[in-house]
Every structure is written in C-alpha cells, then in structure tokens.
Amino acid sequence: MQFPAPDLVSSHRLLLITDQLPAPADFLLHRFLHLHLKQSKTAKCIVLAVSESLERCKSVASKANTNVAHNESFQFIDVLDQFPPLQDRGEGHTNDISLKCIYDLLSVKLSDSRTNGQIPLVILDDITSLEWLGVSLVDLSRFARALRTLCVKMDAALVVRHHIVTPSEPDMLLRHLLQLCTYHIEVRPLASGRSGAVSGEVCVHLGPSMKDTNEHVISRTSALQYRLTESSAVFFDKGTSTGVL
User: Fold this and answer.
1) Handedness of CA 28, 34, 39, 45 (dihedral sign)
2) Beta bridge partners of 158
3) Residues 197-216: pLDDT tens digits?
C-alpha cells in the first residue's frame, strides 16, 4: 500500500492536514513535496513557509534523495518576511496587507507555472502559527478562501497544515478549513502513546466537496500507522508494524 496515493494530490483540491504536538505532520508535508517533484521534473511546488526554513527543506530533501537546492521547480516563499516587526511597519501596514502581499506573490508564481501544462502544488506549512502571531481569525479565514480560489483558477493543488491544540474542542479556524477542504488528512498520536515501532497514525476523511465517493478514505478504526525514519516515514496497516512502503 502506498501513501499518499499518487492521485490524491490533483488540481482544484485542498488537502487539509491536521496534527497534534505529540505527532507533528512535518514528515507528511515533506513527503508531498518530494513525491510531487519526483513525479514530474517540470511541475512546480511552491512552499509558503511559516515554521519551516529553507535550509531544513534542503536537508530533509537531501536525505530523501531529492535535490531542491538546484531545482527550478521548487519555489520557497518565507511568509514571515511579509510581516515586519511592529516598529518597522509603515503607517497603515496591517496584517491583511501582509497576507495580500503573499497572495500577490503566489499569484505571479502560479501564473508563470501554467505554461508547461503540469499541475503545480502549493503547500502552506503552518497556518496556525499565523493566528498565534496575531493575525485575526477573519483575516486568516479570508486568506485561506482566497488561496483555495486562486489554486482552483490556476489548476493547482493546495495543501494546508493546521495544528490542533484541543482535540476535543475544534477551534474556529479548523472549522472554517474543514468547510473548504476536499480531503482532511488527520495525523494523530497513538492513544497508548508513542512507541519505538509506531510513531502515530494517519486517517483520511472526505471534505464537503467529495460527498459522493469513498475514494482514498481511511477511517479512524482502520487508520494507517507509521514509523518515522531519518529520511521520511514507513507506513503499515494498523497493528502489523510491518512496513509496506
């Protein structure tokens, strides 16, 4: 069994990845990046980075035998560069203006990528930290919707990661993202705690726009388990601890 399935990422889709502190989904974001670059040498992957650094992206990719350092298909946008410290901001510079700058920059890069006929992939690695940094829920909700609309217009796939702090009480940003997503990929810690053989588990749920199909669905009762490795992760059926890919 392969995860993610090659056709999970396709144009017009928003894949929402949620994780928790005991089971961060960094490995899955990098996996999407590497698989996309390997599947096509000309398909662009644009990372909107909030918590990931360019150097870490290069390091993790190198361990997975993927060269992003000299790959023109890989585009890295440091989101926090658009959020100058309060004392350095000009009069009237607000968070929504910073988000608009990021949107405009992404729009230009996606427009440039449409000439080769390949599906570009956009990864927003950490929308939650923007809220923690003071961006309002209203601005973030509008930004997420604008990104989704832009990626649909540009025939791109969009992956967004959101951190869950209180699993029993979904926050308002998560509720908004769930209404936008095509699939919700849930990275969860084991109820019994992390072990040497199993790092956590992955479930895949349908979003509102995929009501009529069970394609790619992995329920919590049949969750796919994984074990982190130095370069990526090994996935296996629940309860087997036997790597399948």
Assistant:
1) positive
2) 14, 122
3) 899 999 999 988 776 666 77
